[in-house]
Amino acid sequence: MQFLDDSLHPENMEKVVITVAPYGPEWMPADFPEDIPVTMQEQIDKAAECYEAGATVLHLHVRELDGKGSKRLSKFNELIAGVRKVVPDMIIQVGGSISFAPEDDGQAAKWLSDDTRHMLAELEPKPDQVTVAINTTQMNIMELLYPEYLEGTSLGNPATGAAYREMTVPAGPAWVEEHLRRLQAAGVQPHFQLTGIHALETLERLVRKGVYTGPLNLTWIGIGGGFDGPNPFNFFNFIHRAPNGGTLTAESLLKNVLPFNTMALAMGLHPRCGNEDTIIDQHGKRFGSVAQVKQTVRVAKELGREIANGKEAREIYKIGTWYKNADDTLTANGMAPNRKPGQKHVPLRG
């Protein structure tokens, strides 16, 4: 991404698209009963409350009545329909993991089968987005969950903690290409969840080959444990390499969420918050999803950023937009064109 002399002036920035992840699939409801919704109506109400607070993108997971993450696509369909009815302008972004929680103590925290994950393209009503990981990666969310944050929570259980520590994100080449094919055929936009520069480079290769032909909405995830760590230099390197025509959202963990969101807001990028990312504030006290959205709105306004409403967020994310081929996709996303046969030297950025 390019930064000119006036790029940090808020009048030259897009409006802020706030993503909220209020379903915290790694936590059990008893870990934060005041904030984690369980019944279908509670899950719908939580989405509406977050939208009213200023969030325009809902990162969606679903729970069963016993509090465990749901693996039933019918439950996803029900929640999507319920949210659509109450807040029709909110962008619904289904978490591509579906549910990676262990069924019982000591079981591995595994993502569902490739075939089941592909079926996210068949949800009805359709979500606006499904998050897509690039490259199979270790996802040890326990690496930065310090003991004082885990005390008295379900992740403090040694067996559960061990299961999450060994978790990986399965996103090999064949799965990614097939998943992108199915999502595009269904008119569902991928939102790319990227763990570092290596994932961004693989995504660029997919674009250059014409495997993906749409807008590039990216989230940089700085949570350590196989992903980039929460080091600002990792984040700034990613920003520097991200394409000019895409959007970029910051995602981190616990007390790192607010600093990275503030950096993103100051630079014209976008924030993500919610109890999937943190259940504590900077003082270590419980901090709910709606309160996090309201805090994000306050910080944005202090920096002079305007908050996008649902319709504006859809325009910024280019929901429903697709391109004809690799060349058009590269141009639309502000990327250098592919080298033509016989062409020498590096082409200028278009």
UniProtKB/TrEMBL annotation:
Pfam families associated with the record: BKACE (PF05853)
> Which positions are tagged coiled coil?
none
Q: Which cofactor does it need?
A: Zn(2+)
| MF GO annotations | 3-keto-5-aminohexanoate cleavage activity; metal ion binding
Q: Which domain of life is it from?
A: Bacteria
The family database entries (InterPro entries) matched by this protein are listed as: Aldolase_TIM, BKACE
List keywords of the entry alphabetically: Metal-binding, Transferase, Zinc
Q: What is this protein called?
A: 3-keto-5-aminohexanoate cleavage protein
